[in-house]
Amino acid sequence: MKIQFIYIITFSVVIWCASCSREEAVPDVAAQGLQAAQLTSRVKMVQIPGGRYQPFYGTDTALVKVEPFLIDERPVTNGEFLEFVKAYPQWQRSQVKRLYADTNYLHNWVADTLLPAGIDADAAVTQLSWYAAKAYAAAVGKRLPMLDEWELVAMADEVVPNARQKKSYSDRIVDFYLVKNRQYNAVKQSPPNYWGVYNLFDLVWEWTDDFNSVLVTGDARSGDYSDNNLFCAGSATSATDVLNYAAFMRFSMRAGLKAHYTVGNLGFRCAKDIPGNGDIKNQ
Amino acid sequence: MANKLTLSVLAALLLLGACKSNTEQGNASAKSSATMEEAKGQPEEAEITAAPRVPAPIGNRAPKKLIVKLLTTEIQGEIADKKKYTFWTFNNIVPGSFIRVREGDEVELHLRNDANSVLPHNIDLHAVNGPGGGAEASSAVAGQEAVFTFKAMNPGLYVYHCAAPPVPMHIGNGMYGLILVEPAGGLKPVDKEYYIMQGEFYTKARTDSVLEFDNDKAVAEHPDYVLFNGKKGSLLGANMIEAKVGETVRLFVGNGGPNLISSFHVIGEIFDNVYQEGGSAVTHNVQTTIVPAGGSAIVEFKVDVPGEYVLVDHALSRAFNKGAIGKLKVTGEKDPKIFKKGGFDK
């Protein structure tokens, strides 16, 4: 089981790296996460039925199929990540390998296993790399959500599963996005969306497993289309809804990331396949 | 046969002639030799300035290696009438720092995105020959720095701006500035130089005193404010730009937009020289010049008599109602031969 798991994680890292020609290093994340016993996640997971959805980027005929999956109802918190680094010292601030996290990794923590005073243990953990998020997810027996899964859930407002056609949908999210220092607020203090999922927009940006699978290159006027499945001559020409400013902001954020980056308002939540669903990712 | 030969020789000559004239045309638009001179020496940090100041002229120096450092931020500042606005900036100012280089200079541009930023930012300099004007190469999320290097090849006055999606929002919040690429030998010296950049703001109230970007108004292109240098009154009162009678004034005028074209005019002056759209063509005796969104113009004029000269976007509702107004204060001796109140001397 363990070997199989390592294999799968390594495999997915290889796949990821193959899809991202800009990242030269191929770190072995699996080796970084699995010496200690598995942690238990207490976060409630919400089942999302999946289906075909219209990605923000892509042609309007290219619906993407998303299998049913489970997603954490809220982001992972400082308190939970603290437990993780206690169990997996290699992910502590002073121990982490530079390849896996930049120099700002958890830099606001007082010490390796001490949250600063005034930082809410129930606020979303931020300032951590994709590698660290992925290792956490593995440690609790979950995985990071795929971009399509995250975006599928994010189409909902509080009332309907797909609110993208509502004018208020993007505007409200943009209003959330523009508030500074909102990452310090505790999770689950605002209403959940249609699925019962909290805090998709109002606290932090979130890592997804394949965050850089959609390359919005700057304003997407890069001369190099070779590694871009979207063939953007301008980000607006490849987006399905050019008034969805919230999505532009989100995708431009993702496009600016590298896997070892840590950002003050970037956190994550976990996802999981539905047992017996036959998906390779979490067997 | 002989006829045929003559014909083909003639044809060949004609073709050659055509080629020659093509080559000449090509040369006219090609980079000058100055552009391709190698930049030598240790890199130096370039002088950059906040509007309305500009850095010292480049003079007659050789090409250099220059380092330009810009910081992208999202900060509150006053926009008009004690109202605050959340500006997105280069170096905490709107417009961003004025950059002044020489053709042939090599520029290492550092774009750091403040750790407290919510969004990623980047820079597209219209002076750059390269993909996206550097936008992709400079893209930086909060807390990160991106660096790229370019050679300034075409003399002129160029806009730079953030090109992160959604671009109209980044520009609409104030992320633009100017970079001047002086020709070899420099622009002709003048007495006063100033940096003025127009941009319009589409706002809605977040609170009673804090405004923020309104996407609907931006899409409709209906701004609440059309401003010089990012603030109503930035060139009025104690902030007027100044010159003395007899001096020649050069204004580096840019327009960040994101949408409107400026009809730039100085009330009571005629532009002796206009570098049209910031390029190399100079026209004379111009009353009002177009400054496109994402474009520029350099205007020069000698001031002859004292007084206050009003700078406007001559689409005048913008000046009267939306803030596109500034002043140049000229001091010195009156010259009744040029202008005076009343009729001829009796």
What is the fold's blueprint, element by element?
The complex is a heterodimer of chains A (283) and B (346).
Chain A lengths: L1 H17 L10 H5 L11 E4 L2 E3 L10 E3 L2 E4 L5 H10 L42 H10 L7 H8 L12 H11 L27 E2 L28 H4 L6 H11 L10 E2 L3 E3 L10
Parallel strand pairs in A: 5-6
Antiparallel strand pairs in A: 1-4, 2-3, 4-7
Chain B lengths: L1 H28 L3 H4 L3 E6 L2 E2 L14 E17 L2 E8 L7 E5 L3 E8 L10 E2 L19 E7 L4 E6 L5 H6 L3 E7 L9 E10 L1 E3 L4 E4 L1 H6 L4 E4 L12 E4 L3 E10 L4 E6 L3 E5 L6 E5 L1 E4 L3 E8 L4 E7 L3 H5 L3 E7 L15
Parallel strand pairs in B: 1-3, 3-6, 4-13, 5-10, 11-16, 15-23
Antiparallel strand pairs in B: 2-5, 3-4, 6-8, 7-9, 9-10, 11-14, 12-13, 16-21, 17-20, 17-22, 18-19, 18-21, 22-23
Shape of chain A: globular
SS-derived structural category of chain A: alpha+beta
Strands of chain A, total number: 7
Q: What is the helix/strand order of chain B?
A: HHEEEEEEEEEHEEEEHEEEEEEEEEHE
Class of the largest domain in chain B, according to the CATH hierarchy?
A: Mainly Beta
Q: How many domains in all of chain B?
A: 2
Instruction: Report the mean per-residue pLDDT of chain B as an integer.
Output: 91
What percent strand of chain A? 5-15%
Could you give me the name of the CATH homologous superfamily of the largest domain in chain B? Cupredoxins -  blue copper proteins
Count helical runs of chain B. 5
Distance between the termini of chain B: 88 Å
Residue share in helix of chain B: 10-25%
The poorly predicted ranges of chain B are 9-30
Average pLDDT number of chain A: 81
Rounded to the nearest angstrom, the distance between the terminal CA atoms of chain A is 9 Å
Q: Which protein chains make the most extensive interface, counting residues with beta carbons within 8 Å of the other chain's beta carbons? A: A-B, 36 and 32 residues
